[in-house]
Amino acid sequence: MAVEYNHEPITVEKFDQMVAEGAFGPQERVELIDGAIVPLPPITFIENTCVNNLSELFNEHFLRRATVQIRGCIVLSEFSKVQPDLALLRGPARGYIGRAPNPADVILIIEAGDTTTERDRQKLSLYARSGISEFWQVDVNDGTISVYRDSKFEKTYTSPVPGAVITCAEYPSDSFSVDDIVLADTRKPDDSRSESKISRDAPNRRTAM
After folding, report:
1. Which of 25-34, 59-68, 196-205 has the lowest mean pLDDT?
2. In b/e form, how buried is each residue of 85-118, taking b as 16+ CB within 10 angstroms?
3. 89 or 204, which is more confident?
4. How far apart are CA 70 and CA 53, in angstroms?
5. CA–CA gap between residue 117 and residue 76 (Å, rounded)
6. Nearest CA among 203, 109, 112 for reference residue 153
7. Residue range 192-199: average pLDDT?
8. DSSP states of 4-71 as a string?
9. Is the pLDDT of residue 205 over 60?
10. Nearest-CA neighbor of 106 among 57, 60, 68, 152?
């Protein structure tokens, strides 16, 4: 069921009430963005594999230091409640009993996909306005990770790049293999990009929603 937004903006409180009252089907995934209820697209097999892989990598690196939340809710404002593919949160999981995380809790948000890349990029403006300091967009089609910090495009990491690693700004000593994140070993040979460098162009590119 697609919910149209053509009245006054819906608050998170109202949205939660609608969920509790069964306004959406059991398999229906929706987000609240700027007061509008927006359906989430179906999850593809490769997207699901990529997110599960990210979960394994991040849980291994951040055990007992941070919480790795997979497709859970984050309240960004009075009118926005989203479900990013992965959120790295401050503190232990038990600290979120009885409440949803908010921007002050978020270290990093990652969106990964092969069919939702443009939609995820459009959410950058929402994350930036909400005070999310770091956002990674993983495109499993072309094997890239685009990094945004403080709403500014910083760089794109491209696979295959021998030995290329990526780090989170708040945990610079924890590095991740770019190939591991984009599942380089599962992609077809003709899908591999010929580039063997990290792109550093357009350092101040901004993406508006």
Report:
1. 196-205
2. bbbbbeeeeeeeeeeebebebbbbbbbbbeebbe
3. 89
4. 11
5. 21
6. 203
7. 34
8. P--SSPPPHHHHHHHHHTT-S-TT--EEEETTEEEEPPPPPHHHHHHHHHHHHHHHHHHTTTEEEEES
9. no
10. 68
Q: Please answer whether residues 161 and 197 qualify as being in contact, where contact means their C-beta atoms are separated by less than 8 angstroms.
A: yes
The CA–CA distances, whole Å, from 83 to 120, 123, 134, 151 equal: 11, 11, 16, 19
Q: Is the pTM of this model over 0.90?
A: no
The rounded distance, in Å, linking the Cα atoms of 46 and 207 is 25
DSSP 69-97: EES--EEEETTEEE--SEEEEES-GGGGT
CA–CA distance, 175 with 167 (Å, rounded to integer): 5
pLDDT at 207 over 60: no
Q: In this structure, what token pair is assigned to residue 42?
A: 């179906």
What are the tens digits of pLDDT across the range 105-155?
A: 999 999 998 766 677 777 888 999 999 999 999 998 888 999 999 888 899
